[in-house]
Design brief:
alpha+beta, 51% helix, 28% strand
């Protein structure tokens, strides 16, 4: 692992710890509004680009 990727990982951890309360609020909000058989994935690609994916879970059969 290079120093750059290590720094990025530590930045992500610090950012998560700083914003964990807000992250949990968003998670809880989506759990309330999205049907149980669907998942939501949010990916922050950059400070001005966010991907939001909503997809149906496969059946557990």
């Amino acid at each position: 692992m290079s120093c750059e990727s290590s720094k990025r990982k530590s930045d992500l951890i610090a950012n998560y710890e700083k914003h964990s309360s807000e992250i949990m609020n968003v998670k809880n909000y989506f759990e309330q509004i999205v049907p149980k058989n669907f998942n939501v994935r949010i990916r922050y690609n950059s400070s001005d680009e966010i991907d939001l994916e909503i997809y149906e879970r496969p059946n557990d059969t």
